[in-house]
Amino acid sequence: MKEKKVAVITGGARGIGRAICLRLADDGYDIAFDYRSDDENAELTKKMCEQKGVKAIAVKGDVADPAHCKEFVNLSKEFGGGKIDVLINNAGITRDGLIGLMKDDDMDAVLNVNLKGAFYMMREVSRIMIKNRGGKIVNLSSVVGISGNAGQVNYAASKAAVIGMTKSLAKELSSRNINVNAVAPGFIETDMTEKLPPQVKESAVDSIALKRIGKAEEVAGAVSFLCSKDSEYITGQVICVDGGMVI
Ligand code: NDP
């Protein structure tokens, strides 16, 4: 009998998170994902995974809440028969604005979800992976965490911090056979980018070497690679999936 593999994904109801759930389901993982509020889309992601012949659970909650992360990880461990093979920290938000107009809450909310949420999840999951002597962790950063972006000091800070956290944890967990990497998407077509004005999208496309916006499935492909046997010798790295936006 084939060994059961379990992947835990945050923010799996829509966008890149859903594409990652579906791609890892194709790769044979049972899928445990969480989401914040969108029950309808969460149910749809769950059904789409199950149609691929794997098991799936959807857990509602906020990754900025450490109690939710603990509960989500415990449920995922139970679902996985005592282990977790893969963790993908995907849940993320934006609260864009120029610095003079940015409220304390815009900074706190973005750091709490994008940075601290990933930290809470890695703290819980790493304990399980250490016991099982292996695992793969992939964090969703962003190219703006590398290059910066006007109007996104909060978001860019959170995504740069995710890179620092990825590299540090890669060093900390390397002796336990756990790989920790990051994927930094550029401009990807999802609800997050849908809300941007057309002129912002046009000028973004201008700055992309491949002259097009990326697809969520293209990000999921890089995540799948970082969870596969083919990337066993890769840790502490950041793979940009940005069509050459930042070279
Ligand atoms: P979307 O806004 O399309 O989807 C975000 C998903 O995360 C949703 O399922 C949402 O749940 C969930 N989520 C948001 N906040 C929380 C929370 N506090 N707790 C649990 N789940 C939460 O985002 P994208 O798919 O575009 O982005 C995915 C990741 O990729 C993010 O980390 C983002 O920063 C990063 N990224 C995206 C880029 C892009 O161009 N789209 C570019 C670079 C990086 P619900 O559906 O319930 O609201």
What does this molecule look like?
This protein has 247 residues and is α/β, with parallel strands linked by helices. It has one domain: Rossmann fold. It is built from nine helices and seven strands. The protein has helices at residues 15-26, 39-50, 66-79, 104-132, 144-147, 153-173, 191-194, 198-206, 216-226; strands at 5-9, 29-35, 56-60, 86-89, 135-140, 178-185, 238-241. The chain has a seven-stranded parallel sheet with strand order 3-2-1-4-5-6-7, sandwiched between helices. Helix 4 links the parallel strand 4 and strand 5 (135-140). The N and C termini lie far apart (45 Å). The mean pLDDT is 97. Bound molecules: NADPH dihydro-nicotinamide-adenine-dinucleotide phosphate.
Q: Largest beta sheet, briefly?
A: 7 strands, parallel
Taking all Cα atoms into account, the compactness measure Rg is 17 Å
Low-pLDDT residue spans: none
Proportion of helical residues: 40-55%
Question: Mean pLDDT, nearest integer?
Answer: 97
CATH topology: Rossmann fold
- The sequence of SSEs as H and E is EHEHEHEHEHHEHHHE
Question: What is the second-level CATH architecture?
Answer: 3-Layer(aba) Sandwich
What's the level 1 CATH class? Alpha Beta
Globular, elongated, flat, extended or rod-shaped: what is the shape? globular
Structural class of the helix and strand makeup? Answer: alpha/beta
Distance between the termini: 45 Å
Strand order of the largest sheet: 3-2-1-4-5-6-7
Small molecules (ligands, ions, cofactors) in the structure: NADPH dihydro-nicotinamide-adenine-dinucleotide phosphate
Could you state the CATH homologous superfamily?
NAD(P)-binding Rossmann-like Domain
The number of helical elements comes to 9
**DSSP strand (E) fraction?**
15-25%
